[in-house]
Amino acid sequence: MVAAPLLAASAAEVAISVAADALVVLGIVVITLGVVGAYRLPDVYTQLHATGKAVFLGVIAFLVASIASGDGAIIARAALIAGFLILTTPVGAHVIARAAYVRGEPMRTPGALDESGNGLDRPDGAVVEEEPPDATRDEPVRG
Amino acid sequence: MIHEVVFYAASVWVAVLVMACAVLVLRARSTASRIVALDMLVLLVIGLLVLWSDAEGVPYFLDAALLLALLAFMGTLAAARFHGGGRLF
After folding, report:
1. Complex ipTM, two decimals?
2. Which of 64-123 (A) contact B at CB < 8 A?
3. What is d(CA B53, CA B65) in angstroms, rounded to the nearest whole number?
4. Residue A26: helix, strand or coil by DSSP?
5. Any idea what DSSP says for residue A69?
6. DSSP string, A33-63
7. Does any domain span residue A76?
8. Any chain A CB within 8 A of the CB of B88?
């Protein structure tokens, strides 16, 4: 939409333009919260919530807002990018989380629970082959 | 007119967030955390390109954004699998 005078624009065009602005502002808020979350959250597993949901959905809001341009080339490319991101972001997050888990990345979040028995929810968080007896903890579920 | 102002201001703010995310990449506590931050950095750059394309009204930036999404997915996959298993595939 190339800077049409506001009086000449029809009501529908104004409504679409305002909706696009609102979507951009919403995306900005969500992306900012995602970046703040990536700074504040203590370990990889919780940081993935911030990047894989908040930042991703903010970018999707930007892509939806680009529908208001009315340009077919922009809309087609935006739809392509949105579809690709929707397909690949969960896969990437899963692969990162699996790599962190295999490497024994500690879970520093308070109240985290590692049900595999590898002890990743301990404060020191190291992967131990033979767990030393620990009377203060419940025995983790094996298998 | 306010439409362009909103899009340009949003582009500037996303550029600030890209810089903050680059700082996060540098001071990440572990390798997996660094991979997460790099993934988020590329997502932010994609959002910046989308906003800039809308502000300018030209579709060419979206080609770059699409290519960046493709490359970033492969890069994240390769880095994470190498970090987790010691080999790529």
Report:
1. 0.89
2. 65-66, 68-69, 71, 73-74, 77-78, 80-81, 84-85, 88-89, 91-92, 95-96, 98-103, 105
3. 10
4. helix
5. G
6. HHHHHHHH--SHHHHHHIIIIIIHHHHHHHH
7. yes
8. no
Number of domains chain A is built from:
1
Select from B30, B43, B47 the Cβ nearest to the Cβ of A105. B30
Considering only CB atoms, which chain B residues are within 8 Å of A80? 66
Residue A25, domain member (yes or no): yes
Any domain includes A4: no
- Domain presence at residue A124: no
The average pLDDT across B49-53 equals 93
pLDDT digits (tens, 9 = 90+) for B4-29: 888 899 999 999 999 999 999 999 88
Alpha helices, H only, chain A: 11-40, 44-49, 56-65, 72-102
Domain that holds residue A88: 11-102
Chain A residues within an 8 Å CB radius of B84:
95, 98-103
Chain A contacts of B69, Cβ < 8 Å?
Answer: 81, 84-85, 88
Partner residue opposite A59 with nearest CB, options B37, B43, B63:
B43
| CA separation for the pair A81, A75 (Å, rounded) | 10
The 10s digit of each residue's pLDDT in A13-37 is 888 888 999 999 999 999 999 999 9
- pLDDT-wise least confident of A122-136, B27-41, B54-68: A122-136
Domain locations along chain B: 2-82
